[in-house]
C-alpha cells in the first residue's frame, strides 16, 4: 500500500527506523497531515518541494538524515525551526541559515526579499501591534454588546455586585481571623 492514499492521516512518526532512500513525493497527497517525523533515519536526496503544499502540516522533523539541497521556504516550511533539520550538513536555505551554492536553480535561490519578508513577520513591532489590535477589538466588541443588549448589561452588573459582595465578605472574615490571632 502506498502512503499517499492515506488522505485522512493526521500524524506519521517514522523516526529511528533506519529508513533509506528519498522522501516519497506521494506524501504531498496526505492533505490532512499535521505531523511528519522522519528524523534519525538514513534518508537521502532532497526534500520534495511539493510538501510545502501541505497547509495543515505544523510539525516536520527530518533531523539526522543524509538530506541535501534547498529547504522549501514557502507554505508551512517558513514556520519550522533549524532544529527540525539539524544533522543534515548538505541542506541549505533560510531556515538553517546556510546559503545554497550558485548551482541551484533560479526558482530555488533565496532572495533578499524573502529574508526581508521573514524579518518583517518576526518583527516585535508587528507582533505587539497585532496583540494590541486584537485586545482593542475584543474590548470594544464586549462594550458594544453591553451597550445594545439590556439583559446582558443587567446580568453583568449583578454578577459584578455578587463578586464585590463575596470579596468583601471574605475580607471581613479574614480580618476577623487576623484580629483573633493578634489578640492571643
UniProtKB/TrEMBL annotation:
Which locations, inside or outside the cell, does it occupy?
A: Membrane
What stretches pass through the bilayer?
A: 125-148, 163-182
Protein topology in the membrane: Single-pass membrane protein
InterPro entries in the cross-refs: Leu-rich_rpt, Leu-rich_rpt_typical-subtyp, LRR_dom_sf, RLP_Defense_Trigger
Instruction: State the UniProt keywords alphabetically.
Output: Leucine-rich repeat, Membrane, Phosphoprotein, Repeat, Signal, Transmembrane, Transmembrane helix
Which cellular component, as a GO term, is one annotated location?
Answer: membrane
Gene3D superfamilies for the chain:
Ribonuclease Inhibitor (3.80.10.10)
Is the keyword Chloroplast assigned to this protein? no
Q: Which domain of life is it from?
A: Eukaryota
Q: Name one Pfam family in it.
A: LRR_8
Q: Which family does it belong to?
A: Belongs to the RLP family.
- Entry protein name: Uncharacterized protein
Organism the protein comes from: Acorus gramineus (Dwarf sweet flag)
**Higher taxonomy:** Eukaryota, Viridiplantae, Streptophyta, Embryophyta, Tracheophyta
